[in-house]
Amino acid sequence: MPANFPDYVDVDYEDGDGEDPVDYPHINDKIEKAIEVTRKGLEEYENPVVMWTGGKDSTLTLYFVKEVADRFDLEVPPVVFIDHYQHFDELFDFVERWADEWDLDVIYARNEDVGEYVEANDLEPGDDIPVEELSEHNQHHVREILEYEEDTFPFLLDTYVGNHLLKTVALNDTIEEYDVDGILSGIRWDEQESRADETFFSPRHDPDIYPPHDRVQTILQFAEPDVWEAYWNFVVPDTVEEYPDDGYVPESTDDIPGDLTKEDLPVSPKYFAGFRSLGSEVSTDKSAEEPAWLQDMANTTERAGRAQDKEDLMERLRDLGYM
């Protein structure tokens, strides 16, 4: 990490303070702001990365990065994919497929200490891991940072210890290894209460918690329906030549235009299957039978299918460096 960070970065950390999606009433307003923030992020940081989960929000963020980089002759940064060892297989296939299509440099962030123990002992999600079997680095996080006192913890993503070790520690170690100074991420104001007060440029400068860096949050202003509107009007038509450019919205996998299949579209197949949020394979269920973009987004909760949906937990994880 450059010794003078963040002095060389000139961004407005209050941009977006007190705002919410209604302050950007039209999809064009939201896109214009996304382009502005994305360009600033690509120009201001020396070693930026894009956080990419393969989900709709991070793929929309990546779309803006690619479009802005092409328009303003900028570089597309590496993308970071956090492998927490409990992903849907289809999500891995999706990421690998489109990383190759878009010629992306993918950095896989993993807590290999935990992963190696799981593999060596043939553990399944929910099995216990002894804290004393972890590396000194991970034990420090469990005992000193999380102040966890039990002898074991379950190998589950959607728990306090599991999420911190498998996601946050993996991410922070990657930030340090690659001297990352800015992370372009796809969180949204309307997604969770713990993210409602975020700003477009969010500082993470406390070296006692994480390697100092900024979060560049390009789609805060998009609500869930806006994400899908952007997908079917811009992301998919701009990515797939054979797809109509009139905002056609498929009602099922059998309703995709022409000879295209769902594998030809930059849309995770889990969304076609009724999932609205993609967590871990063992703790995420579909929200309904119809595709995500056809569900009742106004009267249902986006993350209802996920086991980890507790705002106090998310707030604590955010304070420790999670997205």
Task: Please give a quick description of this structure.
With 323 residues, the chain is an alpha/beta fold. The chain has a single domain, classed as HUPs (Rossmann fold).
Which features characterize this protein?
323 residues, single chain, 8 strands, Rossmann fold, two-stranded antiparallel ribbon, 9 helices, six-stranded mixed sheet, alpha/beta
Structural class computed from helices and strand pairing: alpha/beta
> Count the helices. How many?
9
* Rg value: 19 Å
**Sheet of most strands:** 6 strands, mixed
Average predicted confidence as pLDDT: 91
Secondary-structure element order, N to C: HEHEHEHEHEHEEEHHH
What spatial order of strands do you see in the largest sheet?
3-2-1-6-8-7
Strand content: 5-15%
CATH architecture label name: 3-Layer(aba) Sandwich
What's the CATH class label?
Answer: Alpha Beta
The counted number of beta strands is 8
CATH superfamily: HUPs
Can you tell me the number of structural domains? 1
Instruction: Pick out the low-confidence regions.
Output: none
